[in-house]
Design goal:
The structure is a single chain. The protein is an alpha/beta fold and 333 residues long. It folds into three domains: 51 residues; 61 residues; 167 residues, Ribonuclease H-like superfamily/Ribonuclease H (Nucleotidyltransferase, domain 5). Helix 1 runs antiparallel to helix 2, helix 5 crosses helix 6 and helix 10 packs across helix 11. It is elongated and about 105 Å long. 26% of the residues are buried.
Length: 333
Amino acid sequence: MTLEDKVHAFRLHVLQRAEELGNVSAACREAGISRTLFYRWKKRFTLYGIDGLHPKRTATHPGRPVQLGAIKERRIVAMALACPTWGPQRLSDQLRMEGVVVSPTTVWRTLHRLGLGTRTERLLVLEVHSAKSAGLLTERTRRNLARRKVRHVQAEKPGELVCIDTFYIGNLKGVGKMWQLTACDAASSYGMAKVVPANNATEAATFLRDVVAPELEKAGWKLWRVLTDGGSEFKGAFDEMCRELNIRHTRTKPRHAWTNGFVERLQGTILHEHWRIAFRRRYFRRRFQLQASLDSFLHFYNFDRPHQGYRTKGRTPSEIFWGAVREQRHEEV
């Protein structure tokens, strides 16, 4: 007996029970229904007979028509596979800059429908596509970073505070062990980085002298303070370079690495949006190839990538970082 037959038999039994007892209220109490519902069933029985007691079959309503055209869908998929670690919000922002206006929810629904709803699924598509390349270097990094609520380190203008940290890229076949020295300007989110073969104070001092300080000087700012952790690479020669350049050097508290969150976040972005993709697309044989690849991503990060932080407020880091030079040129004109 189906559920529909059981419902039909129950309703018929209630009507028959009311006739036997001669009391509608008593029959309703036994069945656990209201008198209103009883008389509704009785009316249907009077009008349509025994068949009127069958439950109504509700028709399914047509779903919402597809609002996304095939062209926009292909653009979403192409962008998602080109940048597989980006989420729906980032993809939506980048597509809007290219003239394709779609909401983050639409992006997510499209990718989810096509089996590309998670980064892992999109990275797997890229990895399978590149699997036929001989000697492709693939490094799997699956670590969950703890999120902590901390106070933000404040800086009003570029150069007031630059956060510096190191990042271990890996032991690459044919290249050797490689580290990345990263600097992030706290006021503008402007990023600078260098691939180095050793993690020591000499390399850190050279990075500060040849990369960070000149970049700020070209942009019209003075470097006042740098913030690092207590690692050995930020002692000795690095401290001497800070004194030589008249830069104040401050360190985070022990076991408080998240205090240097600006550069930590930037390094996570570089790992997440660049290295994990780059190592699946090509095989690096020389350090200068790594540096060229990193420079290309940093140019995109600083000049073209949409930002939503409270510091940038929709502007790119370059708009803030190179603002002094633009204002000076405007005044000269």
